[in-house]
Amino acid sequence: MSEYKPKIVALVCNWCTYTAADLAGTSRLSYPAEIRMIRLMCTGMIDQKYILKAFLDGADGVFIGGCHPGDCHYIDGNIKAEKRIGGTRNLLSQFGFEPDRLALQWIGASEGPEFQHNMTAFVERITALGPSQVADRMIL
Amino acid sequence: MSDQTKPRIGVYVCHCGMNIAPKVNVEDVAAHAGTLAHVVVARDYKFMCSNPGQDMIINDIKSLGLNRVVVASCSPRMHEKTFRNAVKSAGLNPYYFQMANVREQVSWVTHDSMDATEKAKALTAAAVSRVFFHQPLSTREVPVIKSMLVVGGGIAGMQSALTCANAGYQVYLVEREPSIGGHMAKFDKTFPTLDCAACIMTPKMVDVLQHPNITLHTYSEVEKVEGFIGNFQVTVKKKPRYVDMEKCTGCGTCMEKCPSKKISSEFNEGLSFRTAIFTPFPQAVPNVPVIDAVNCIVLGKNKKCGACAKFCETKAIDFEQKPEFLTLDVGAIIAATGFQAVNPTHLEPYGYGRFPEVYTSLEFERLNNATGPTSGKMVMKNGQIPERVAIVHCVGSRDVRHKKYCSRVCCMYSMKFAHLLREKTGAEVWEFYIDVRSPGKLYEEFYNRVQEEGVRFVRGRVAEITDMTDDPNDKGRLTVVAESTLTRRTVRLPVDMVILSVGLEPAPGAEDLGRLLGVSRDGDGWFTELHAKLAPVSTPMNGIFLAGCCQGPKDIPDTVAQAMGAAGEAIALLSRGMVTTQAEISHIDPDLCIGCKSCIGACAYSAIGFDEARRVAVVNEALCKGCGSCAATCPSSSASVDHFTDRQIMGELERLV
Amino acid sequence: MMMYPLNSPDQGIVQTVRSMLQELLGKKLADAVLVLASNPWSDVPMPTLFTDPDRMEGVDPLAPVAPVSSARQASALTRSPSGKTVVLVLRPCEIRALIELVKLNQCSLENAIIISMDCLGRMENKIFSDEAKTGPGITERFLSSPELQGKITTTCSTCNDFLPENADITLCTLGAEPGHMGFEALTDKGKALLESLGFKKGDDLPKRKQDIAALADKRSLSKKELFDATALQMSTIDGFQTFIGRCLNCYNCRTACPVCYCKECVFLTDVFAHPPELLLERATRRGAVKMPTDTSMFHLTRLSHIGHACVGCGQCSSVCPSDIQVADMFRTVSEKTQAFFNYTPGRDVTEPIPQLVVRNGKRGD
Description:
The complex is a heterotrimer of chains A (140), B (657) and C (365).
Chain A lengths: L7 E6 L3 H10 L8 E6 L7 H9 L4 E6 L10 H18 L7 E5 L5 H18 L11
Parallel strand pairs in A: 1-2, 1-3, 3-4
Helix pairs in contact in A: 1-4
Chain B lengths: L8 E6 L11 H9 L4 E7 L5 H14 L3 E6 L2 H14 L7 E5 L1 H5 L5 H20 L8 E3 L3 E5 L3 H12 L3 E5 L14 E2 L4 E2 H14 L3 E4 L2 E9 L2 E8 L14 H5 L5 E2 L8 E2 L2 E2 L11 E2 L15 H5 L12 E7 L1 E4 L3 E3 L16 E3 H7 L20 E8 L14 H16 L2 E6 L9 H10 L3 E4 L2 E5 L11 E7 L4 E7 L1 E6 L1 E3 L3 H8 L26 E3 L9 H21 L1 E3 L5 E3 L9 H5 L5 E4 L4 E4 L9 H5 L5 E3 L4 H11 L1
Parallel strand pairs in B: 1-2, 1-3, 3-4, 6-7, 6-18, 7-10, 18-29, 20-27, 21-22, 21-27, 22-23
Antiparallel strand pairs in B: 5-30, 8-9, 11-12, 12-17, 13-14, 15-16, 19-28, 24-25, 25-26, 31-34, 32-33
Helix pairs in contact in B: 1-5, 2-3, 5-17, 6-7, 6-14, 11-12
Chain C lengths: L1 E6 L4 H15 L5 E6 L8 E5 L19 H9 L7 E4 L2 H12 L8 E6 L7 H9 L4 H7 L1 H4 L4 H4 L11 E4 L7 E6 L2 H9 L11 H27 L2 H8 L7 H5 L19 H11 L8 H12 L8 H5 L6 H15 L25
Parallel strand pairs in C: 2-4, 4-5, 5-6
Antiparallel strand pairs in C: 1-7, 2-3, 6-7
Helix pairs in contact in C: 2-3, 9-15
């Protein structure tokens, strides 16, 4: 099991969580290399398709990071995202994906250490869950 | 460059000196990128952002016919603009460019070199995949309205307003209190030079009032902000003063005649009284009183009085006044809403509120002020001069239980108090500190001076202030209990007066203003600047700038400097005269739109309208901020944000797993 | 709720309903009627829009077949105000779909009169056509034959939402003696209409309550069995794959779906038109990839997209050329989605669509 390296996609907003990731970088706060990040302008632009696709493409976990409620650069995109992502998690759980594989966290621009902590904890959580059932299937 | 041309992608992997290489095997990343479909050339280079690095890209575009470029280097927040400009200078649309962040997200945060290289390969491949789907985008030029709004009339707002007005631009200065002046108007002396605050402040206030380019709106608040950089529409609510500003001469008779005299004075920190019709302080600008509707007999209690109206010779009193709403068109906005002092009541061991001789620093400022409740005499409530005074540093600051940050000004003003106490009363002064922070021009010198003046310094946080004394002779005095960390002894010091050097926190209402302006706040509530070092007065909201303490605690020199900086940014914007609109905005495909209007409900900026004839939603490009709420909400996938399309994001996604 | 009982042994139920609709047009109580009607060119009745009462000889709203969901046609008729009063004769599931479409600004019920029925279910087109050929009066036979009623689709036989909501008038057959039926007015509009047609208020049909309860029990039981089995199968990716394994990406299910409102499905756009090198790369990454690709993506996306709105009409299963029971999956998964959002599709036009997160509680009008 020590050899298992999960595949994790992080969809993060430009203003808060991406900035926190930059800060973690500048502060040399290391975290597992399994995290692969996509920069979006706001979590409010995350289409459910992106999450479904990540899982069907074989991601073992999807992490979504946005601004704290009230701090959204676009006023309330994060709140809209929260509701939508709840629906996606519910759907995935009906197809046997553990709900924990899809995380939504608020990480503010100045929270480099929180970013590091969240990434480390999420990788640990997914590693404990093991490979997603899609991992080696020839489906998409 | 036609869109139909076959993609020819160039990939450039940056070493960033020793920052990316050698942790990431950059040669390996470039070699891997070279194997990807449509990649024509893949190179690595020491510093891609340097001139030779950029020239390498430009030459390749020209000689190899590249039409897409990927640079794997630092964060796009750092150098995306740089490389877009390079791409553009080679004749390519700047949006045919994508960055992979292999420094902040890879080399700086990954232990294992192999892991780092693998991750860098994946991120670079994903960028290649994304850039394949990029489309050329264009921006538009929109004229800038040549006026600006300053929110907050403290020293920061006043300075910003004056600088902009001196540059020849129309400035609207909005202050919610009846007078401009802010906190600085309450001070008597300023550190470290000890010059008289009023002497430098009062003329500035008058300058603001009299400046032909400044329109002052006191007792007013910002209600609504619409529009975008260069073209904001701001709604300002003028609260009713109940005094006609045109007619009032500022004679003060109304205040003499007002029978409601026992109202705690906000300006004097509750140490004196004011009337229901009042100006906060004698040098108020404008010198026109307001009626406090809660405490006024006519307005608040609905009873007969009208003494002010009766004695007003110019008939300026108007009990019927209603709030007024103004719409201001401005090109730039400067937020200068300042701070409030931490209320130490909840810090119970310090006894504030329980012991009359425990003062906050702002209260002490008023005691020390010639226009204050004691006319500048530093006396106790019983009228006697204190023989020994303790000053407690870092009250509410540098404390994980309260504010973890340093409030920056407390050490210096505490030493100013010590000096003034020694000078005016000869009292023994004890400063209880954690560290003395005096980094500023002539600050350390001032620290040395007060030490030479006999002020005692005890390094240790105060544990308690109590009225229980060890010695019956000290009955009625307070005892400061602290551990001196230098002598490792507990100190129990009887004193007559305690001054709590309270920290700074964001002004009340900053949250609401942040929301109106779309400016985010950090964990402590201060407005967030665009970049801590390189854009300290800008915000992520284009055209909105920050001045003074609303961005974080700072002293007067720093505040004034920042206010001038913010004014400089605003002036630069206004004098440029044009702004370039954002290219990354939403776009609704009328052929796909089903006219359900969901996007209109989701848009936080009212940037989507409805074309009734075609029954489709239409984006107002000038108002759209490109957040993508509409795109994710649109049930029929007709809305998408340019540069963040499904194809681009899903293309990137596919290569990451 | 008021019952207008009718004794029509001579002309039969079909003719009774037909006459009533003819009279609606004849007396100018409505400008047009949209209703299922047979025609000489098709072996199954199709939704037909009538304005002339003399052309209505084929009208057969209770025929146990629905080759297409009439909700789509109803929405096309009411998409923008025409100023005309239109009678829409719809099954309960079709009304539910229409309500969902109203929420998306796709149609309006302002000038519509909705007539619905106790829905005993529908047969697949082929089965209906074969049964119709065995003799005259397939609808009358169906209404009185438990054997024929057993030939309805799986979706219908597991549907316990067989009574209409949001209709003005219900054509009631449950609880009536053979040859009898009743018109039930559910709204004031329905009541006024029936009374201006000269119908007289009377007692409820004698066995109506018992018959409804019995049918509801039977349907609920079979529904539970079906949903439990389907949920179990969906609970793993392999089960899901087995279920949709034959999917050929024809998108018939979405074409037939009354609540799939997109003008052009995103799966038909260039977002899913992958360049060959991408397909090869996918295959390289996993060693093998099933083609056509993106079938799982299609079904999951559609579920996430409109799961909340699935009204359980079963059209998706009926049109699948690969015999995938799409509706079983959709209904089972959607039921949980709807429970998650505490949402009932088709219940109330004012109930907000859960996934359309709207600011200030208001859509943009």
